[in-house]
Each structure stands twice: as structure tokens, then as C-alpha cells.
Amino acid sequence: MLRLFVAFNLPPEIIDQISSLMKITQPLFKYGVRFLPPENWHLTLVFLSYQDEKNLSLVQEAIKNTVSQVSQPPQIELKELVYGPLSKTPRMIWLTTSEKTSQELNEVKNILEEELQKQGLKWKIENRKFQGHLTLARFFKYLKAGELPPLKKIAEPMEFEAESIDLMSSTLQRSGAVYEPLLKVDFRREI
Question: Within a 13 Å sphere around the CA of 141, how many CA atoms are in the beta-carbon half?
């Protein structure tokens, strides 16, 4: 069994910009927070949980069918550093996408979920409103509102065009999850 998710990975220049932002953010926290390494930064579209290895070809087909239905690669705008989840007691630090980007990514997510269902895959479908975000840190201790420093505002939004939709595996370890790309389906395909 493989623990799988489908995501957009980040280009190197965006990773560099976020790394600069984290150099300002990390010193604000003295304890209770584990900052994730850049290789773990991504925008999850669908978390598939544990899937049998025989389902890999079905997921691959669903991703290819999704990419073929998307007329333009999504333009992704990373806009705001916040505590997440947004409606609950904070357990993470997120870099969220703009409302426009979240709507666009939600459309891609809906196509992908339809394609995954056509392939006969089973997973827990999330019915809440989609908010695109990168998880940059996790709290290993619940911090109260008074213990949370205000997060620095991003001077300018970070923007990039998605290159591909990627199938990722997630291996849980004591030190945190380790992610490995299994498949990359590019948006820029020959016409």
C-alpha cells in the first residue's frame, strides 16, 4: 500500500522566495513549531490516502485525462501567510493562494476527482470549500492565541504558472513525512 496525494510542486524561484520569507518567520517562534523543509512544500489537490500499488496506473490515467481537459496551465498566486486551518484552532502555518487561484485550482480538483471516480478509485472526498495553501510549519504543541506572534505580511504576492500535476507518495517517519514524486504530467504538451 502506498500513501498517495496529487499536487502541484513549486518551481525553484518560488522555493527561494518562500525560503527568504521563512528566514524572517522562523525567529518569531521560540518553541512548539516544526518548520517543514522546502522539499515538502507543495499545493495538494487531492489526498488519496492509502492505495494499492495496482491502482497507480489508474491514478496516472486520471491525471492524464485531467491535464487534457485543462485548456491553460493554472496561474498560481501565493498571497498570504496565515495560521491554519482557517476555521479551527491553529495547528499550522500556511501560505495561502489568492481567492482567484483557489477557485481555479478547485475547478482542476473537481475534474481530477471525476476522473479518479471514473477509474473506480476510492478515497475520502473532502466536501469543504477548497482553499489552496502550502503548509510551511506544524505545531507539535497546541499554542494559544496569545502565544502566536503576528505573521509578517508578504510584500508582494508570488506568482507562477503550474508546470505539471504530480502524483506523490508520502512516507510517515518520526521526523515527519517524506515525499517522493512518482509521476509528473506536464501541461505543456505537443499540439
Answer: 9
